[in-house]
Amino acid sequence: MSALPSSIAPSQRRPIRELPDELISQIAAGEVVERPASVVRELLDNALDAGASQVTVRLASGGVRLISVKDDGLGIPREELTVALRRHATSKIASLNDLETVGTMGFRGEALAAINAIAELSILSRFTGADGAFALDGRTGELRPVARSVGTTVEVRELFFATPARRKFLKTDATELAHCIEAVRRHALARPEVGFSVWHDGKLVEQWRAATAREQRLADALSDDFVAKSVAVEHVGGVVRVVGRAGIPDAARSRGDQQFFYVNGRFVRDKVLSHAVRSAYEDVLHGQRQPIYALYLEIDPARVDVNVHPTKIEVRFRDGREVHQAVRHAIEDALAAPRSGDAAAPAGPPQPFFKATPLPESASWAQPAINFVAQERGAGDFEAMWPRRTEELGHAPDSAASQWPLTGAAPMAFRAPVGLPSSTEDLAPVATNDEAWPLGRALAQLQGIYILAENTQGLVVVDMHAAHERIVYERLKTQLDGAAITSQPLLIPATFAATPQEVATAEACAAVLPTLGLEITPFSPRTLAVRAVPGTLADGDPVELARSVLAELGQHDASTVVQRAQNELLSTMACHGAVRANRKLTIDEMNALLRQMEATERSDQCNHGRPTWRQLSIRELDTLFMRGR
């Protein structure tokens, strides 16, 4: 093979000239239309912008032979039909201000022209109030009267017939059909008030009727299981509002195929949003599993740029940190409440599980669970945190306590198994019936590892170490959150070779870094020096921490890096401070642990994301023993 010439002779040079309109349209089509699903997405955008309440999608051969999108929207006037196929022709925007505050799904005016350049396109439409409908042939420009009700039908046949090389890259009909259905599903999740139906080769393959509530559409388009295994999200942070549903950690999947995020009704994939979601699940998700969610972010259109990519699936926020924090806090707040309350629903009127009662000054266990400094140095053990004697639990010994596993006698009252800071109040149960205790009453301890409890639904199995670990961890986080992040100056500054971006970030964020307990200053044009780190992380690697913070400062709120590092430390401390396996507990202690679980945030998972308890219903137990067969 001959080598490429090092230079081009003047006679070989091609002149600069304008490209033909047809080639321009085909180039534009390559950006807009990737596969049949891209056409479906663009046509659905137009249908929804026209105010449709019912949309019907018909496909043939996975959308390659035919894509037809029929709606009952406003329709298109006869005189505007031919204009609709011209490049950059749209009714959505008319000025730069309109572009900066886009409130419609479509706005570029490229889709119909791009599709018409690579396929056989026709439009049938009847405008509201018009006497009749008209059909436009995209290839010939012929306009003729037809019969049709108010609305628009766009038919696309023989996709990529003008660019056969593109058709070779398409997958099987089944694969392309799946992508088309997913495109419709994404629109359906954003517009529950609109009905959608999808037909393929004359058969109805999907249908979602108009719904009055978003939860109903989520159940129809995803599954009832999705709604059952998710919690409601509703949060307002500044100018950002986040609503929707976030899956519980137990519902996490190996793939992220049930992750839907919408910005002002538009499905998007954005690094800021995905990072915020992942940050919110850090404390409760095990390993690399992917959470499920359908979240809807509402923000002033002027604060988000949707004109980033021709596919309109990417956005750019004016204040990414503001959005990041709003999304993160929204999900964290939704996941914080323990789900043990769902395990046992009271039959009568709801009653409070707990009442606040002052800690007795004489109680030795009313001190903080773990002294932060002492525990960091390895001091303290579980004996000091968990009272062994029933007198320390705040009530006299019960002679029937030893018979609870057999007789089911209920305990009189319980105190917290782990002490709270003296500035707070203890939580003591007031109810005397089992219905008010979601996790039930303790029956026995199994192999020194699990606590067996009975509630109104059946049997509850609790991993006592994992449960107590979460309780201690949340207490430590609460103690630390109340204090400012203090800096620990380094005796010898840690220097490292920094990239130009790291140097620029350190200089631009010089005022932010001290609030995180960090002091990073330029040592030379290409070197940074870490002179102080957060006191709680003094034993860590200052260079690694500095790099992580600087890397995240450019895109997200860097406080998450410091918080993550601190939480890892607290998690380790909690793990060492929690009750160990094979530790024999009294019935009093078991019940006290159950009551604390009901009152502790995120107590359904341990610090590593594993579940702390499981419910076995009576029906499941009957199945095990073949009762009723």
Polypeptide structure, described:
The chain has 20 helices and 24 strands. Strands 5-4-3-6-2-1-7-8 form an eight-stranded mixed sheet. Strands 9-10-13-11-12 form a five-stranded mixed sheet, sandwiched between helices. Strand 9 and strand 10 form a beta hairpin. The longest helix has 19 residues, at 559-577. It is globular and about 85 Å long. 38% of the residues are buried.
Quickly describe the structure:
This protein is an alpha+beta fold and 629 residues long. The chain contains 20 helices and 24 strands. The radius of gyration is 31 Å and the shape is globular.
Question: Key features?
Answer:
alpha+beta, 20 helices, 22% strand
Q: What is the alpha-carbon Rg in Å?
A: 31 Å
DSSP strand content: 15-25%
How helix-rich are the residues, as a percent range? Answer: 25-40%
The chain-level structural class is alpha+beta
Number of helices: 20
The total count of strands amounts to 24
pLDDT below 50 for ≥5 consecutive residues: which ranges? 346-432
Please report the distance between the alpha carbons of the first and last residues. 78 Å
| Major beta-sheet overview | 8 strands, mixed
What is the average of the pLDDT values?
79
Widest beta sheet: strand line-up: 5-4-3-6-2-1-7-8
Shape: globular
